[in-house]
Amino acid sequence: MVARNYRSAHGRGEIDLIGWDGDVLCFIEVKTRTTREVKPAETAVDREKQRSLRVVAGEYLRHCSAPSCQWRFDVVAVYYLQGSRQPEFELFQNAFSVA
Length: 99
What we know:
Strand content: 35-45%
Strand order of the largest sheet: 1-2-3-4-5
Low-confidence stretches: none
Oligomer: single chain
Distance between the termini: 23 Å
């Protein structure tokens, strides 16, 4: 991990986690829920949220002078289910396109 709760300098949003997976820079959105019954957590990353994440990721890449590296967007769904002692995690690599 190289950053967490990275905020846009222009107030355009936030990226929960930024880290390397090998030579790929990953911008990671974390969504937490207490149930799976209403809607899966990963569906909360809708088109508007994706647009916001793309803008903030672009700012980060310009700021750190790494625009030529490979990068992607991942989503981590975290579930704290009733009666379970440990949270459950699901990772969605390349959850949506970078373009």
